[in-house]
Amino acid sequence: MNAQFVSQSLLWLVVAGLAFTVLALARQVGVLHERLTPVGALTTGTGPAVGEAAPLLRAVALDGTRMEIGTRRASGRALLMLFVSRTCPICKVLIPVARDVGRAERLDVLFVGDSDIAEQQALIAAFGISPGDFVNGPEIGMAYRVDKLPHAVLIDAEGTVVARGLVNSREHLESLVVAQETGFGSVQAFLRAKQVA
């Protein structure tokens, strides 16, 4: 009887110690959560800056449709350009996400690539992208100084760059839309302004 009492007492001490440890860890997670700032698309220091007029570019979609980028949009909607490649695994994840965000936020979505035409045809076939929503060529990527993929640029209906950056997730794509809504080019700019105020 005495050995059983000692055993149960030790067990309760261990359970109490574990409960204390879990509570301490939960508190630390809460502290870390408060300290972490939201992260949006990673902006780069090169290319057209947020708030500037988008470079006027003429492009031809894979279906032969001619379009102008950087002018007032006839649809009256903002343009989300997503630079992608068939060899980029993150791009393959973001293509359907970009289309979903475009539908939800009422954006025109244009996919831009710079590869062999057969490779791009395979990409649009694999994801069901309309050939009219895909431009292949280096000109647009060079104008925006895109050096890593996937990269996204949001241009408002008037032809102004609203937000841009390297994107890896739905949250990054949505941060571009939030930038348009708040008037801040990036989450980092918003947080800096909030700290100053």
Structure, described:
This protein is an alpha/beta fold and 197 residues long. The chain has 2 domains: 1-36; 57-196, Glutaredoxin. 46% of the residues lie in helices and 17% in strands. The protein is built from 6 helices and 7 strands. It has a 5-stranded mixed beta sheet. A two-stranded antiparallel ribbon has the order 1-2. Helix 2 (89-105) links the parallel strand 3 (79-83) and strand 4. Helix 2 runs parallel beside helix 5. The chain is elongated and about 90 Å long. The N and C termini lie far apart (68 Å). The mean pLDDT is 87.
Low-confidence stretches: none
Q: Looking across the biggest beta sheet, what order are the strands in?
A: 5-4-3-6-7
Separation, N- and C-terminal Cα atoms: 68 Å
The CATH class designation of the largest domain is Alpha Beta
The sequence of SSEs as H and E is HEEEHEHEHEEHH
Using only C-alpha atoms, the radius of gyration works out to 24 Å
Nearest-integer average pLDDT: 87
- The tally of structural domains comes to 2
Treating each run of at least 4 consecutive H or I residues as one helix, how many helices?
Answer: 6
Tell me the CATH superfamily of the largest domain: Glutaredoxin
Principal-axis shape: elongated
The proportion of residues in beta strands is: 15-25%
CATH T-level topology of the largest domain: Glutaredoxin
Q: Please name the CATH architecture of the largest domain.
A: 3-Layer(aba) Sandwich
Content-based structural category: alpha/beta
Number of strands: 7
Helix content: 40-55%
Described by strand count, sense and barrel closure, the largest sheet is: 5 strands, mixed
